[in-house]
């Protein structure tokens, strides 16, 4: 098969959760174990760091990946979903998986795929593990897809587990309370393996502490070790809560919400350094954090022809959109034009009240079956006090926003990963 034929086969054989939602979800690890057994358990050939949580796990994964690369390790990165190119999901030292590797893997595994009928995410996870072994990586940063306990990345035994935070998302699978969601996320905590929790919350901390006690795993809450005391743009001032020492770091990404992710990453690096073959230097950490970037996170996509900034962010659940709204409050503009598209299974009752009332909305939808119809989104939004127009497609909505905005205004695109993916 050619690469386009291979991707078409992959999407047809195993529909993506990001496209069709719950119909693509398969609970349990049986298929993942079976596929890995057929390949000789490739994930045992390299060290790993496992990163879960509701929000921030992509940013933390990218920061860890960048720092480990600066330290001279050959590093793999597995994340999801992709924005523009399927191959974004798996990288080694800044290179996406080659098209030939994707084709070769599917051709080798096609009989087993057709026998076992694994999910899209199960196939891609095992593909990543296999490629990382073939590349001879020293260590791989593995981002959890959804939840943790039953996520197919959970076959690994990492050097360290990380859980960034807990918020409401995917409640039909993970539970309808924060402690229930936390229990699913805590499923990545392994016996004797240290775990870093990004935030101490009264509702969820007891769940993590109990799980860590059960597995005899050292547990550290990042916000009890570091805090950000200020930032401007990409410069962040951090205080160590252990000794009061303050220092400034530059990140390769912007956004107020990166303060939490930075503290989680620094805590992770402190503990990870003790488990690596050679220690991390301060300069390696600084250079890595300055190089870390996450496409679609508070990204300005305006061109020279645009009269104002056009920002996009993939925040899509209650916590993510809270961060987005807080960030928008710190921007200066005359008028805000908000291109909004969401997926059908999002909890609009909790999400819509978070969004700025003064904005003018372009209600739209991504070109995938899982997208909520623009007309239905507009109806629900108007009930929540948001005003604007219905625009059938995201390119049309962005075009209309560009035409309406003038100097001093701001255009924002968000509501789901897929809305941002289409504008990128």
Q: If you had to describe this structure to a student in words, what would you say it looks like?
A:
With 424 residues, this protein is of the alpha/beta class. The strands form three sheets. An eight-stranded mixed sheet has the order 4-3-2-5-1-6-7-8, with helices on both faces. A six-stranded mixed sheet has the order 12-13-17-14-15-16. α9 links the parallel β7 and β8. α1 packs parallel to α5, α3 packs parallel to α6 and α4 crosses α11. The relative contact order is 0.12.
Summarize the structure.
With 424 residues, this protein is of the alpha/beta class.
Helix-strand blueprint:
Elements: H1 3-13, H2 17-20, H3 30-38, E1 47-52, H4 57-70, E2 75-78, E3 90-92, E4 95-96, H5 99-116, H6 120-135, E5 139-143, E6 160-163, H7 171-174, H8 178-185, E7 195-197, H9 205-215, E8 219-221, E9 226-232, E10 235-240, E11 246-250, H10 258-273, H11 282-291, E12 299-300, E13 310-312, H12 318-329, E14 336-340, H13 348-351, E15 360-363, H14 374-383, E16 387-390, H15 394-404, E17 410-414, H16 417-423
Parallel strand pairs: 1-5, 1-6, 2-5, 6-7, 7-8, 13-17, 14-15, 14-17, 15-16
Antiparallel strand pairs: 2-3, 3-4, 9-10, 10-11, 12-13
Helix pairs in contact: 1-5, 3-6, 4-10, 4-11, 5-6
């Amino acid at each position: 098969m050619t690469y386009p034929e291979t991707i078409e086969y992959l999407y047809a054989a195993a529909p993506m959760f990001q496209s069709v939602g719950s119909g693509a979800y398969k609970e349990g690890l049986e298929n993942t174990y079976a596929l890995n057994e057929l390949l000789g358990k490739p994930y045992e050939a390299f060290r790993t760091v496992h990163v879960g949580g509701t929000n921030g796990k992509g940013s933390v994964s990218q920061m860890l990946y960048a720092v480990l690369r600066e330290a001279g390790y050959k590093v793999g990165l597995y994340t999801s979903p992709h924005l523009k190119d399927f191959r974004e999901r798996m990288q080694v030292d800044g290179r996406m998986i080659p098209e030939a590797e994707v084709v070769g893997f599917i051709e080798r595994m096609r009989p087993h795929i057709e026998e076992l009928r694994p999910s899209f995410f199960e196939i891609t996870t095992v593909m990543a593990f296999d490629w990382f072994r073939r590349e001879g990586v020293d260590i791989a940063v593995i981002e959890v897809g959804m939840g943790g306990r039953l996520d197919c990345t959970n076959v690994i035994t990492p050097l360290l587990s990380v859980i960034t935070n807990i918020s409401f998302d995917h409640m039909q699978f993970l539970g309808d309370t924060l402690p229930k969601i936390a229990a699913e996320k805590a499923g990545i905590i392994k016996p004797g393996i240290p775990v870093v929790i990004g935030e101490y919350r009264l509702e969820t901390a007891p769940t993590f502490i109990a799980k860590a006690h059960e597995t005899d795993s050292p547990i550290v809450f990042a916000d009890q070790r570091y805090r950000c005391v200020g930032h401007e743009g990409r410069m962040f001032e951090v205080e160590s809560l252990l000794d009061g020492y303050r220092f400034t770091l530059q990140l390769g990404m912007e956004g107020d919400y990166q303060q939490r992710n930075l503290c989680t990453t620094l805590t992770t690096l402190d503990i990870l350094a003790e488990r690596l073959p050679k220690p991390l230097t301060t300069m390696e950490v600084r250079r890595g954090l300055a190089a870390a970037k996450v496409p679609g996170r508070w990204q300005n996509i305006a061109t020279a022809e645009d009269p104002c900034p056009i920002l996009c962010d993939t925040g899509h659940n209650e916590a993510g959109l809270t961060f987005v709204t807080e960030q928008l409050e710190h921007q200066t503009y005359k008028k805000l034009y908000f291109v909004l598209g969401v997926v059908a299974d999002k909890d609009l009752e909790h999400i819509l009240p978070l969004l700025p009332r003064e904005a003018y909305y372009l209600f739209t939808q991504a070109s995938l079956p899982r997208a909520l119809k623009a007309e239905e989104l507009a109806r629900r939004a108007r009930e929540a006090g948001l005003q604007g127009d219905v625009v059938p497609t995201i390119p049309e909505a962005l075009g209309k926003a560009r035409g309406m905005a003038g100097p001093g205004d701001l255009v924002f695109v968000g509501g789901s990963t897929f809305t941002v993916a289409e504008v990128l």
